[in-house]
Design a protein that fits this description.
The structure holds two protein chains of two kinds. By secondary structure, chain A is of the alpha+beta class. Chain A is built from ten helices and eleven strands. Classes of the chains: A alpha+beta, B mainly alpha. Chain A: This is TPM domain-containing protein.
């Protein structure tokens, strides 16, 4: 038998190394990937959307966030710890998050790796699950719930790397998943706004309503289109907290009104990219927030930074002529 | 023929000597490896135990904070129950502070007693509408359950490390090496039968 030529041996070793790397890498042949839906709860498009988002999270924030959906897992706490260990979630620095959802047991757990325990306390994880994620699960929007919670994770993540070891030690929280429970009836509490109140005052009232987690879609400060939109909207406590926090941190520095005086836009400083413009319309003799128009025209990207969709500005284009005209 | 025989005799002796040396080296290497394995396993048990202790400490420290923060919301009945839990937490803290033998079983019993008290008091607190709906209760519930889960994970890992270590000590060579090193089997972190039963609460 002729001995293998040296190049053949080298090629064989390289091939084995590549195979080993592929098996070991997250998402590789031996790994279940970022979204492991064994219960078939998510559509293919939803799985792709979440996987893309979580790949972005890993690339830009160094957080390895995986999702497992399965039935009959029995002990979610133990399953999560063992899964993290078996699949190396979070890598050597333990910067991993594992969301385990068992729709049959109606339980959800978010396991936090050692490297993220400082940022994601058990209390924060419980808040994220109870006040954001499961609000969507209750109306059978599982993928939206996971994605909405990821936005809070990004806001909390920060860029600092905490020295830590691989794996996890049971940090995180397990809560009832509230699957298909249905949307809780919104409150009917009203807000007090003086007659003839200017746009800034209406915005201040909105901030107070959000701080009080007032999810009544029929508030006097909302335009008719906004009320229609909010009637079917999942408005989570965490979203309301975020709006209140954002408004508290953002000062209005400019107010622009349309020529006929029926519309107004409140603007923060141009460099405050986390402070979106607020649109208001005059209806029935009072200024009202036009969140429906805002929803169409203002988009939020990574890190909650806003940008305009000029084609959707419609009647509010007057406030952004420099954007509409272009440089 | 005679020189050839002499040649074979010399070769046979060398081979026997070589075999003897090989067996000797193999025996020494095996003993060294057994020793190193036992020492490494003992260190793994110690490291796992340190995790258990820090998890227990975290749990014991949480309860007084919980009691302080929830005092404003509590009725007399819940306050009495929480005082009992606080006493159990204090006992656990004291148990962690003293360094006596047989500590694992003792701490496991103290932890089980604290868990029993908390299992009684938490549903009572959760039944208070003003408290249940707020974020404060959610926060404390998450912290308490998180601390319990950390203890459970640390317990599983510690018991697994002890199982491996004790099994190695019982092996043929392990028993021999352990005897010369003075290594003793370790206790599992178990509260024992009856420790997880429902408590009798007199008010």
């Amino acid at each position: 038998m002729r001995p293998l030529p040296a190049t053949g041996i080298v090629l064989l070793l390289l091939g084995l190394t590549a195979l080993g790397w592929r098996v070991a890498a997250p998402g590789g042949a031996g790994s279940p990937g970022l979204v492991d839906d064994r219960a078939g709860l998510l559509s293919a498009a939803e799985r792709r959307r979440l996987a893309t988002y979580h790949a972005w999270l890993r690339e830009h924030h160094g957080i390895d966030y995986r999702v497992v959906v399965d039935r009959g897992l029995d002990d979610l706490d133990r399953f999560a710890v063992e899964y993290v260990e078996r699949h190396g979630v979070g890598g050597e620095n333990g910067r991993g998050l594992l969301l385990v959802l068992d729709p049959a047991a109606n339980q959800v757990r978010l396991e936090v790796g050692y490297g993220l325990e400082g940022r994601f306390s058990d209390a924060f994880v419980a808040y994220l699950q109870a006040r954001q994620m499961t609000e969507f699960f209750a109306v059978d929007r599982v993928a939206d719930g996971i994605q909405a919670s990821t936005e809070l994770i990004i806001a909390q993540a920060g860029g600092d790397a905490v020295p830590a070891i691989a794996g996890s030690g049971g940090a995180g929280a397990r809560l009832p998943a509230r699957m298909g429970e249905g949307r809780a009836a919104p409150g009917d509490e009203r807000v007090a706004v003086e007659e003839g109140a200017p746009p800034r005052e209406v915005l201040a009232t909105y901030r107070q309503a959000m701080a009080a987690r007032n999810d009544n879609p029929e508030l006097e400060i909302y335009s008719r289109a906004t009320r229609d939109m909010l009637a079917d909207w999942v408005m989570t406590p965490a979203q309301m907290d975020n709006v209140a926090k954002s408004l508290a941190a953002c000062s209005v520095v400019d107010e622009r009104r349309s020529r006929e005086g029926r519309r107004a836009v409140l603007l923060a400083a141009p460099n405050a990219r986390r402070c979106p413009p607020y649109f208001l319309v005059r209806q029935d003799g009072a200024w009202r927030l036009d969140l429906a128009a805002m929803h169409r025209a203002v988009r939020f990207g990574p890190g909650n930074r806003w940008r305009l969709a000029p084609e959707a500005l419609d009647a509010y284009a007057f406030a952004f002529e420099e954007v509409v005209r272009g440089p | 023929m005679a020189p050839a025989r002499r040649q074979r005799g010399v070769d046979g002796g060398s081979v026997r000597l070589l075999l003897f040396l090989l067996v000797g080296v193999a025996a020494i290497v095996t003993l060294v490896m057994t020793h190193d394995r036992l020492v490494a396993q003992e260190e793994a048990v110690d490291a796992a135990w340190a995790d258990v202790e820090s998890s227990l400490q975290r749990r014991a420290d949480l309860v007084p904070n919980l009691a302080r923060s929830l005092r404003a919301h509590m009725r007399y009945e819940s306050e009495t129950l929480l005082a009992l839990a606080r006493e159990r937490a204090e006992a656990l803290r004291e148990g962690l502070a003293d360094g006596q033998d047989g500590k694992a079983a003792q701490l496991a019993r103290l932890e089980a007693a604290l868990s029993r008290e908390l299992a009684v008091v938490m549903p009572r607190l959760m039944a208070m509408p003003g408290l249940r709906s707020g974020d404060q209760f959610l926060r404390f519930q998450a912290q308490l359950e998180g601390s319990e889960n950390r203890v459970n994970v640390a317990r599983l890992r510690y018991n697994a490390a002890v199982r491996d270590y004790n099994a190695a000590l019982r092996g043929f060579l392990g028993r021999w090496v352990a005897g010369s090193l003075g290594l003793a089997p370790r206790d599992y972190f178990e509260a024992g039968p009856g420790a997880g039963g429902s408590p009798e609460v007199a008010l």
